[in-house]
Amino acid sequence: MKTKTWLCPLTVMVMVTMLTSSCKKDKKEVPVLETSPVTYVTKTSVAIEGNITSDGGEAVTERGICWSTLPNPAVSGSKIANGSGTGSFTCTISGLNENTKYHVRAYAISSAGTGYGTEISFRTWNV
Predict the structure, then answer these.
(1) Is the pTM of this model over 0.70?
(2) 3-class DSSP assignment, residue 5
(3) Residue 78: in which H helix or E strand, if any?
(4) Closest CA to 67 of 86, 83, 47
(5) Rounded to whole angstroms, how far apart are CA atoms 112 and 97?
(6) Terminal-to-terminal C-alpha distance of the chain
């Protein structure tokens, strides 16, 4: 009696699939953070706080605040850095235009990518 040769390769394929699917690599996430409401506004400056609540599994190498007169500011535009690591930090942005609406948000950079906090909008004074 002949044995069926298709059964052995099929068994091997199922076992390999099971083994490779159970060996998932840990997926690293971008940092998770918050942007606090603006605490101090003048006609040309503002103070803003950020808080990194999770590094996502990778060390935060840079953190700070980015801003723009358009929505969704990003680190590719105007930014001010304030150290590294998790926790709270404060940045003061100066040299802003008077009576201008700005959009700001905290950011944190790790090897997994850039995480952003909630966008906050404010207007500088017109004095």
Answers:
(1) yes
(2) coil
(3) strand 78-81
(4) 47
(5) 34
(6) 99
